[in-house]
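Lab notes, practical 5.
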Amino acid sequence: MSENTTEVLVGGFVLAAAGAFLIYAGQISGLAGGNSGTYSYFASFRSVQGVSVGTDVRLGGVKVGTVTDLVLNPETFRAEAHFTVSDKLALPDDTAIVVSSEGLLGGNFMELLPGGSPFNLEPGSEIEDTQSAVGLVELLLKFVSGSGSGSK
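Output from the prediction step:
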């Protein structure tokens, strides 16, 4: 009987550890907890290259939200990024959002650049000041071709 009790205890411990890891993974990935405590916004970009659902939205290098949806607007042919931001942040209505890169080999993220307006964005509204991702290949081609360098 002692052997069965030990097996049951070890099995219970393994299941509890697996459950704890699943809960932790859900919290880290943002899947657990739903959208409570967040405000939704959207922005229209020429290109959201390198951004996908689940991409971080950062302010001052700190993750404050997540991209929840990417859709193409068939009327404007621009990519609309829908994202959530912590409800603890009151974003000024002249806030800008930029697709930034973590480095040459790093991934992209969306960076919020708050303005100085005394008025705040309403949840669900559009951030109109946007800047799309700069492609590394595009940048290298401009450099190699000499366009924009001012030399003739």
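Observations recorded by the TA: The chain has a mean pLDDT of 84. The chain has two domains: 1-33, 38-143.
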